[in-house]
Amino acid sequence: MKISLRNSLKSAKFVAVAALGALVATGCAAGASEDEAGDFPSKDIRLVVPWEAGGSGDLSARTLAPKLEEELGVNVIVENRPGANGSVGYNWMTEQEPDGYNMVMVGAEIVTLQYLDYEIDPADYEFLSQLLAGPGGIAVRADSPYETLDDLIQDAKERPGEVTYSSPGVGSVWDNPAQGLQELADIELINVPFDGSAPSIAAAAAGDVDFSIDAVGSQKAQVDGGEMRYLALLTEERLEDLPDVPTAKELGIDLQNASFTGLVVPDGTPEDVVNTLADAIQTAAQSDEFKETIEASNLIPKGTSPEEFSEFIKQEDERHGAWIKLAQGE
Which Pfam families does the UniProt record give (predicted)? Predict the structure, then answer.
């Protein structure tokens, strides 16, 4: 993944200044726009969320927007454009002028959809900043016979192709690590996909499937309510809020995964515009208000640079691509 930075702005567009009466001698000459004078931004910016309102992506956008307004000095209008696993919003973005006045929030779909016959290409976007990460966990219903991750794996070995897990969709950010689990543990599992994380986790809590792989923050309401419990975290280290829950890596399965959200603009957006937006996003994401809201939702605030986000996307592309190919038998 690269960040394609353009070295010059578009040629200035001149407009005729007319009046109903005689032209006023002073100030009638046409001139360059404010943006072309290096005064970006000079009008409202639209921040598109490609998912329904109420999720972590929508929350982060609506928490970030007021802080961006403080940094940029213009209104930042959050707009939801959900549909087709985020591709509606992603495709809409590629049709916009690369002028910095439209941003879209992205998640793992920005790399996974290209492997699932969607016309989505990460190269069509300039990556501004990763805003947050949502670490994953493996959870079961409260009365599950699985007391440990090893219990689950051993049962799957004894009953190949019978142990089930719920996911928020085939090839999704939480279906894909299940492919990694199967490869690392040499087991065969059955995916039961749902339309999003909420019904997927609810199915596991009800015992309709054997376990759930999803974001810890999404599972936590059922865990706190006594409906579910964690077997393992898909993190490098234990989480501060869950000190008694081991990582899968500790248990011999070196598997990590997290959801994420970040902001992008169309490929070809001028370098100075990209830098202005990225600097404002990083400052806003480091504010106490943003951090406190994100952490209260069991998410990890980030606020990375364009270079860091671009490298992260490259790594996610390689990782999720490999998992999806495993699921496809390649």
Answer: TctC
Peptide bond into 135 cis (omega under 30): no
Rounded distance, CA 281 to CA 71, Å?
Answer: 8
Supply the DSSP string of 146-168, one letter for each residue.
--SHHHHHHHHHHSTTT-EEEES
**Cα–Cα dist 68/137, whole Å:** 32
Residue bearing tokens 């603009």: 265
Residue 326: exposure state from Cβ atoms within 10 A (0-12, 13-18, ≥19): middle
Q: What is the DSSP letter of 6?
A: B
pLDDT at 38: 67
pLDDT tens track for 128-165:
999 999 999 999 999 999 999 999 999 999 999 999 99
Cα pseudo-dihedral 244, 133, 141, 243, rounded to 10 = 10
DSSP, residue by residue, 259-276: EEEEEEEETT-BHHHHHH
Residue 284 and residue 67 in contact, taking contact as beta carbons nearer than 8 Å: yes
- Tell me the fold of 135-233: D-Maltodextrin-Binding Protein; domain 2 (3.40.190)
Q: Does domain 39-133+258-327 have CATH number 3.40.1190.10?
A: no
Q: Indicate the domain borders of the chain.
A: 39-133+258-327, 135-233
Torsion of CA 201, 207, 208, 214, to 10 degrees: 20
Q: What does 275-299 look like in DSSP terms, one character per residue? A: HHHHHHHHHHHTSHHHHHHHHHTT-
